[in-house]
Amino acid sequence: MTTLKHRWAAALAAGAIAVTGAGAGVTLAPVAAYAQETATPNPTGINQDNGTLHIHKFVNESGNGDKGLKNDGTQVEGVPGDPVTGARFKIERVSGIDLKTNEGWKKAAALQGTDISELPVESEETVSTVNGEASKTLPVGLYRVTEVGAPAGVEVTTAPFLVTLPMTNPTNNSQWMYDVHVYPKNKRQEDPILKTVNDENATTVGNKINYEVTAKIPQTDSLKAVSVTDVYPSTRLENPTVSSVELGDGTELAPGDYNLNIETDGEAKVILTSTGLDKLRGLNGEQRTVVVNYTFDIKKTSSESDKTPIKNNAKFQVDTGDGSGPEVEVPEEKQPETFYGDVNITKKGDGENIQATFDLYKCSVDQPDNPSSPKLSGDPIQEGITTTGGTATVTDLHVNDWVNGETGTTTPNGYCLVETQTADDYALLAEPYYFQVKKGGASTVALSSLTVENVKNNAGFKLPLTGGTGVTMLLIIGGLIMAGGALYMVRNNRRENKA
């Protein structure tokens, strides 16, 4: 009997049970320093009815154990990662195991290597982390802990695990430890929210520009609210609308499945209604996404010098029932940008500024660096551009070397000025004048300048004209000849009469 007591004293000193099996594993790990609630063992063994389980949740890409941190049920310092708010855990007391008895510890130890997902339970609690921690005071016993939900931007990566309350204090093997700390691993979702732009046809002010926002909704047993918000610069874009909302399985939500809220300046928020949430709840994995397509009108800017890009952000938020979780935004470096530039046109003739009128089109050439025979595309972008004093400025033209949020060439690949009226004594341009607006490697688009030259009508050559200088001289000479002839006839008649 004495030998048996010594054996179980050693077993109790080992602390919590590590159970592994199909879909299960124990994680008893780290964070900072509470004073552990302990009690000195006495002849009756465990002499308290309750213990407290502290669940700590940190986002840590590499895993909590990689930096040599202990996972023995005590609280530790220096846990890497960011504390998570809104992670949800289900805590279930396993039936038929009384840890105040040696037989109960034997039963718990026998669960090593078994599938713990089917264990009978007698009670259930649910807790959510706040700033990385959730605590629950529970009766002494063996508990199965299951992560049932994560906030936006965080994956559920922890398999169910078993933990005993209490554990033997690993720093003093003669004491029970009634405060037990566990540290389930966590991982950030890869690209929890993505945003793309379709701006190839957003040529200038007044055109439509489209954005697509994809939000990965985390797995959770409780989904109370979901919102997806386009965060846009209201000085550059206006009149937000939603063209479609789809789920990851291809289901297109009906208008009654969501609402669009534009009360906050610079935000267009799609909020799922109860029917939309019902459709989302049944999806898992990669299908558990919400894809929103937004459309805006491009506004005219006040500046005609350097142009900063239209940079567009987005965010989403999930409420799992404990209040809205954190907002997850598109990282700065992944927010799509659209660039516009202004073009200054100077109209010249014989070295002087002259007046002319143009229409502006999109157009293409085979070799932009050596343009010839441009092909116009569609209707004019702008009509009646007149050079006053020989100059005019066309504002807010989409650059041709950056399209849909990345380096590329627009289709068509440039712009054309078509002269519709020229100055007096000057010839109209024989073909459209091709040019491009380029961003290059700059973060803004500098003012572009074009000089369009015209030549004189008929290439400057004079046409023969009745009443011109040559005809007049002939008439004068002819007149003189006729006058001379008349004078000769008069004199000749006089001589004849005298004779």
Write up this protein.
The protein is mainly β. The chain folds into three domains: 50-188, Sandwich (Immunoglobulin-like), CATH 2.60.40.10; 193-338, Sandwich (Immunoglobulin-like), CATH 2.60.40; 340-460, Sandwich (Immunoglobulin-like), CATH 2.60.40. Helix content is 12%, strand content 38%. The chain contains four helices and 35 strands. It has helices spanning 2-13, 102-109, 274-281, 469-498; strands at residues 38-39, 50-56, 58-59, 82-83, 88-94, 121-128, 133-139, 141-149, 154-155, 161-165, 167-168, 176-177, 179-182, 187-188, 193-198, 208-216, 225-231, 237-247, 258-261, 267-272, 289-298, 310-311, 313-319, 328-329, 337-338, 340-349, 352-353, 357-364, 375-386, 391-398, 402-403, 406-407, 414-421, 433-435, 448-454. β23 and β24 (328-329) form a beta hairpin. The longest helix has 30 residues, at 469-498. The protein is rod-shaped, with a radius of gyration of 42 Å. The N and C termini lie far apart (188 Å).
In short:
By secondary structure, the protein is mainly beta. Helices cover 12% and strands 38% of the residues. It has helices spanning 2-13, 102-109, 274-281, 469-498; strands spanning 38-39, 50-56, 58-59, 82-83, 88-94, 121-128, 133-139, 141-149, 154-155, 161-165, 167-168, 176-177, 179-182, 187-188, 193-198, 208-216, 225-231, 237-247, 258-261, 267-272, 289-298, 310-311, 313-319, 328-329, 337-338, 340-349, 352-353, 357-364, 375-386, 391-398, 402-403, 406-407, 414-421, 433-435, 448-454.
